[in-house]
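Section 3.1: Structural characterization of target chains.
Under the original work plan, the team committed to producing a structural model for every single-chain target entering the pipeline before any wet-lab resources were allocated. The record below documents one such target. The sequence was received from the expression subgroup and is listed exactly as submitted; it comprises 189 residues.
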Amino acid sequence: MKHIYIFNLVSKSAIYGIGTYVNQLLQMKNYGFKMHFVLLNADVTEVVIETIEGIETIFLPNPVLVPINKISHGDYQINAVRILRRYIDIEADNIFHLNNLDMLYLAKAAKKYFKGKIILTIHYSQSLFDLGGNIANFNKIVQSPEVEDDPPLFTAIRSEIKNVSQMTDLYVDKVISIAQHSYKQNNEI
C-alpha cells in the first residue's frame, strides 16, 4: 500500500486555494492509499498526532510557540524531517507531496532520510504575488544583472528562483503546476 504524506504550512494560503487542493488530495484515502497529513508551524507546543476522518494528521509545532532559541527556516524543516523519522516507515512505498515553494530544506532532508518519491505542487510564486502578477517585470528582474545594491525585492526574487531550481533539479521527482502560467514560469527558470 502506498503511503502519501501531504505537507503544508499554517498560512493564509492553507485556508484558501492550497487548503482546498490538499483536502481534495486527502480524499485519495478512498482509493486504497494510506493518507497522512503533516502540518508545519501548527499551533501546538509539541508534536501531536491525531486520526481525523481516517487520516493520520501530524502537527509539528510552530517554533515561535516553543521555548527554544531562534531557529532558522531551514533548520526547522530539517528538524521536522528528523522528527518524522519516528513516525514514517522508511521501508513503505512512500510519496512525499510538498505544497509550498519554500520547502527546499524539507525536500533535501526527505531525500536523504527516506526512500520514496517527492512531488512538488506549484500553487503560486511569492515573487509573482509580490509583483502583482506582472510577468514582464518578473522577467526583467530575473534577466537583469545582480548588483550589490539590488532592492530587497530583487534579492528575494533571485533567492526564490535559486531555491526552487535547486529543489526541482536535485530533490523533487515530479512537479505539478496547477496553472499554466506557473508551469511556464517554472520551465523558464
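The two ends are 36 Å apart (CA to CA).
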